[in-house]
Amino acid sequence: MNTRFSSSLVAALLLSVPLLMSAPAVHAQADKAARTASSNGFSAGIEFKQQASPADVGLPAYPGSQPQYDKKDDVASLTMGLWGGTFGFKLVVTKFSSEDSLEAVSRFYKDALAKYGPVLDCSQNTGGGKKDDKVLGCDDDKPEKGGLLFKAGKPEAYRIVSLQQRGKQVHFQLVRIEAPKR
């Protein structure tokens, strides 16, 4: 993922991806632990899938867009979740490309994000802003140089759209992050 996220939890989960992908036994152990824990009144678990759709993010697919792969063995989408007790976290990412203009794709997603509340344009963000736990802000989220980044939602559940012109194509990521406060 090319977008920087301010949440240390996102970073920790992303750093754990290679471990989760290379150790299938972890999934079986987590499933067994979750079943045992839930029978005792406590539930915990891990979800990891190399698939997600724009609908899983809560945004529409841009008309005519194609899944975007950075490398030959890359995946175009990912779903990760972790929960236990009063803690929960979910990250859904999809990557696409389009031959349409950056302006057309960004306009489409600014309109789509509006259903989640005011759309923040974090494209000129320099980071380091004061974080208010009750209001969604750009915080340290910013796009790659020359890119665009938009956010909408609440601090505990929001969407991000990151766009970057690459030659004649626009590469973009749709992201959903949920980390409810309890």
Helix content: 25-40%
From the spread of the alpha carbons, the general shape counts as: globular
SS class: alpha+beta
Q: What is the strand content?
A: 25-35%
List low-pLDDT spans. Answer: 1-38
**H/E element sequence:** HHEHEEEHEEEE
Count of individual helical segments: 4
The largest β sheet comes out as: 8 strands, antiparallel
Radius of gyration: 17 Å
Intertermini distance:
28 Å
Mean pLDDT: 78
Q: In total, how many beta strands?
A: 8
Main traits of this protein?
182 residues; alpha+beta; 26% helix; disordered N terminus; 8-stranded antiparallel beta sheet
Care to describe what's here?
By secondary structure, the chain is α+β, with helices and mostly antiparallel strands. It is 26% helix and 31% strand. Strands 1, 2, 3, 4, 5, 6, 7 and 8 form an 8-stranded antiparallel sheet that branches. Strand 6 and strand 7 (157-166) form a beta hairpin. The longest helix is centred in the N-terminal third of the chain and has 16 residues, at 24-39. The chain is globular, with a radius of gyration of 17 Å. It starts with 7 loop residues before the first helix and ends with a strand.
